[in-house]
Amino acid sequence: RLWRGGAKTALVVVAACACAGLVIGLITLTGLGLKFTGIILEFGAGSVFLTLLLAMATCYILGMGMPTTAAYIMVAVMAAPALIQLGVPVLAAHLFVFYSALISGITPPVALASFAGAGIAQADPMKRLLPPPHPQHGV
């Protein structure tokens, strides 16, 4: 019975990651990743801070409704290269993109992780939707 429950739970994550793999394949084959990196760099106008904000917005938008791993993989193809081209170290760029993909799971309007956590805690999901601001979010 435990194996069956674990398989059902894993199936949701596997399906989401498979869909993200298809999307990444399409992004790579069509060259959209390079175009998107160029767009972020163009709107960032050489400013690392502005490019970080654009990359974070990209993570929020593309990460809606996906598990963190799938969101990170998708955005790592599109936003991390823009940060790396501006001189941000590779590890720092990927950690920033991963953190932004992680936060997209608790950010409205989708906030899947907030609803899942509220279900586990048997709390009202609407009260847990917006996390209180923490100083480390701005770091």
Describe the structure.
The protein has 139 residues and is an all-alpha fold. It has one domain. It has seven helices and no strands. α4 crosses α6. The N and C termini lie far apart (44 Å). The mean pLDDT is 77. Keywords: Membrane, Transmembrane, Transmembrane helix. It comes from marine sediment metagenome. This is TRAP C4-dicarboxylate transport system permease DctM subunit domain-containing protein.
Question: Would you spell out the secondary-structure blueprint of this structure?
Answer:
Layout lengths: L1 H29 L1 H13 L3 H15 L5 H11 L1 H6 L4 H15 L7 H10 L18
Highlighted features:
single chain; 139 residues; mainly alpha; 71% helix; globular; membrane
Tell me briefly what this model is.
InterPro entries: DctM (IPR010656). By secondary structure, the protein is mainly alpha-helical. It contains seven helices and no strands.
Helical fraction equals over 70%
Radius of gyration: 17 Å
Derived from helix and strand composition plus strand pairing, the structural class reads: mainly alpha
What oligomeric arrangement do these chains adopt?
single chain
Helix and strand sequence: HHHHHHH
* N/C terminus separation: 44 Å
Q: Identify the overall geometry.
A: globular
| Average pLDDT rating | 77
Which residues form runs of ≥5 with pLDDT under 50? none
Largest sheet: none
Strand portion, in percent?
under 5%
Continuous helix count: 7
